[in-house]
């Protein structure tokens, strides 16, 4: 037994480190802050959003709805039923925007 084993014998074990990935809404918000256009539609999200979001259309739409609920996207009228279009809200100056903020 080494001195380090004896010293750590009475101490509790350190909590396991959890690798947390940012949720989809936060990743999309970070990406939208760099989006060059003032608006975005569902087709552009499917093509250009981070892969974890665009890989599944249902996740992409739910993520956009979450950002709409928190005021980062504003829905715009469209001509087609199955198309969605939003205005991107940029709040200045924000270094690291949060979804729940």
Task: Sum up the structure in keywords.
single chain; 101 residues; Arc Repressor Mutant, subunit A; 3-stranded antiparallel beta sheet; 5 helices; 3 strands
Notes on the structure:
With 101 residues, the protein is an alpha+beta fold. The protein has a domain at 22-88: Arc Repressor Mutant, subunit A, CATH 1.10.10. The protein has helices spanning 3-8, 24-32, 42-48, 51-54, 57-69, and strands at 39-41, 73-76, 85-88. The protein has a three-stranded antiparallel β-sheet. Strand 2 and strand 3 (85-88) form a beta hairpin. Helix 2 crosses helix 5 (57-69). The chain is elongated, with a radius of gyration of 21 Å. It starts with a helix and ends in a 13-residue tail after the last strand. 18% of the residues are buried.
TL;DR of this structure?
This protein is α+β, with helices and mostly antiparallel strands. It has five helices and three strands. 39% of the residues lie in helices and 11% in strands.
Q: What is the CA-based Rg, rounded? A: 21 Å
The helix/strand class is alpha+beta
Helix-strand pattern: HHEHHHEE
Q: How far apart, in Å, are the first and last alpha carbons?
A: 51 Å
What form results from the Cα inertia axes? elongated
Which helices and strands, and how do they pair?
Blueprint: H1 3-8, H2 24-32, E1 39-41, H3 42-48, H4 51-54, H5 57-69, E2 73-76, E3 85-88
Antiparallel strand pairs: 1-3, 2-3
Helix pairs in contact: 2-5
């Amino acid at each position: 037994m080494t001195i380090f084993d004896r010293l750590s014998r009475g101490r509790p074990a350190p909590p396991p480190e959890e690798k947390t990935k940012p949720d989809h809404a936060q990743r999309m918000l970070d990406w939208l802050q760099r989006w060059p256009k003032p608006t975005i539609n569902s087709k552009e999200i499917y093509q250009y959003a981070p892969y974890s979001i665009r890989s599944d259309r249902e996740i992409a739409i739910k993520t956009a709805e979450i950002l709409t609920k928190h005021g980062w996207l504003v829905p715009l009228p469209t001509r087609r039923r199955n198309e969605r279009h939003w205005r991107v809200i940029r709040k200045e100056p924000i270094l690291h925007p949060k979804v729940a903020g």
